[in-house]
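re: ur question from earlier - yeah i can do the single chain one, its not a big deal. heres the input i used so u can compare w yours
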Amino acid sequence: MFNVPGQDPVTLTDAAVAQIAKLMSREDAAGFRIGVKKGGCAGMEYTMEVAAEAGPMDIVVEKGPARVLIAPMAQMFMLGTEIDYETGLLESGFKFRNPNVVDECGCGESIKFADMEALQTNG
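and the output i got, formated as tokens:
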């Protein structure tokens, strides 16, 4: 839908590939679905789930053993995003470096996109 021909809408770091492949293997899944939903103090939140199969409108990005499925509603928001997996002393998790994000809450759990106001007034 919102894919540039010949170019993946997201990139995956080696750490993200390893973690996604691990989750897929553990669940015997077809992929790791990324989405967005309304919520959080900044307006939107990422969603992530292990998926049994790709949906008909999902964009599929594969790198090595990892397969990311980008849900239809998330596709326009995810263009140009780098997905990483970071491990720290206090927490570990997926990190999204998304050029479309203009603001985020203090804890980093929710985000705001540049065209969010248009979505809220039209949708």
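The radius of gyration is 14 Å. not sure if urs matches, ping me
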